Amino acid sequence: METQAQTERFLDETDPRYVNLCLDTGHLAYRHADNVAIINRYPDRIGYVHIKQMDPAIVARADREGLAFGQAVAMGASCEPPAGEPVVEDVAKALRTIDRSALDRDLFVVVEQDMYPCDFGQPKPIAQRTYAYLRSLGIGEE
User: Is omega for the bond preceding 16 within 30 degrees of 0, making it cis?
Assistant: First the structure.
């Protein structure tokens, strides 16, 4: 499930007592879904979050050429925040509006960047910069 319609149908047709959503911001952005709208419409269904961004130029090329996700990733579709979509600041703001006390659980956020193939030394500096960037937005602070 990747599109807005698929995600909404999944959430509308499953029982929230048993099923929640891993909101993968990059996969949804890759298929042009609106992450903030999903958070706002289904705040109680967000089980955890994968913060990821996509390069809109590569996504547009993948759309035009009918490329598989893996092909687009190999071209650099998954990019370092804040260079892509969705706008992480908007996602963070929407996540902060979720009433976690009503959820009776914590909301976990995992940072991802699909990078294959890549040199072994490439991910660590990106992770360090991304960590600092996300902390500046209040992600990871209590």
Answer: no
